[in-house]
Design a protein that fits this description.
The protein contains nine helices and seven strands; from the N terminus they run βααβαβββααβααβαα. It has helices spanning 8-22, 33-40, 51-65, 125-128, 143-161, 176-184, 192-207, 222-227, 235-239; strands at residues 5-7, 46-48, 84-90, 94-101, 117-122, 168-173, 210-215. The protein has a five-stranded mixed sheet. Strand 3 and strand 4 form a beta hairpin. Helix 5 crosses helix 6 (176-184) and helix 5 runs parallel beside helix 7 (192-207).
């Protein structure tokens, strides 16, 4: 657990074995970003194992240690018809989205069946101040990073309002980078998307659902667009 480097040959073997196991470990395909980045940054025949790599390896150890108490069920591996379709969006102000649950989706206590779920979240100042813009070219967050964070909040909104265990859900957004990251589950980087995708995996594993992702053009995403921007309006004004 304290090893700082290894050979490229051995690292290829480790990644190959973990990739093969990820087919039966829901959420695990989202953990590979930092491990893939380590391979892309190799020096000669050696790969550096930094803190992010060890965190990813710890995630796999955690899954291994809990495999007997947390078995994988078939319905977590095979996508079926979604029980809910949702649209989400994000801006420099915040994020928001809507879910349209199927009539047979089971609501949690306090929520009604077959009623759309709307949510929004305004970014705190420390996030807004880090966004890269024309006025802030030295920022550290891109709009795509915020869109990806909004995609995770979108899934949490549904998990909080409906029982999605062993069910398939379909989430749509109007940012192509976000959709690509969500579908692939990982990226060769140590930037924010790598850690957000790791949270996607943990979220999926905890709530036991099958996520599907698709692209929705901006003009067709007007509900989520308003929810992610119009924070000057009350909920009553937004839903009127």
């Amino acid at each position: 657990t304290n090893q700082r480097r290894t050979s490229v040959k051995k690292w290829h073997k480790v990644l190959g074995e973990l990739r093969s196991m990820s087919l039966a470990l829901p959420g695990s395909r989202n953990i590979f970003s930092t491990m893939q980045n380590a391979l892309s940054m190799k020096k000669g025949a050696r790969v550096a194992l930094n803190k992010g790599v060890h965190h990813a390896l710890d995630d796999f150890r955690w899954m291994h240690n809990s495999i007997s108490s947390r078995p994988t069920r078939l319905a977590e591996l095979i996508p079926l018809a979604p029980i809910a379709e949702g649209h989400h969006d994000a801006s420099g102000k915040g994020a928001g989205g809507v879910w349209f649950p199927a009539a047979h989706a089971v609501p949690r206590q306090g929520y009604r069946a077959n009623v759309p779920v709307l949510w929004r979240h305004q970014w705190p100042d420390f996030i807004v101040n880090r966004l890269i813009t024309d006025d802030n070219p030295n920022g550290t967050l891109t709009n795509s990073d915020l869109e990806l964070a909004g995609g995770l909040l979108q899934l949490e909104a549904l998990a909080q309002t409906f029982d999605i265990r062993e069910r398939t859900v379909l989430s749509k957004g109007d940012n192509l980078n976000t959709t690509f990251w969500e579908r692939k589950g990982s990226t060769t980087t140590t930037k924010p998307p790598a850690y957000l995708l790791r949270l996607f995996g943990m979220h999926q594993r905890y709530h036991r659902y099958v996520p599907r992702f698709d692209y929705l053009s901006g003009p067709s995403n007007h509900i989520a667009d308003a929810l992610s921007r119009d924070f000057d309006l009350t909920w009553a004004q937004l839903t009127d």
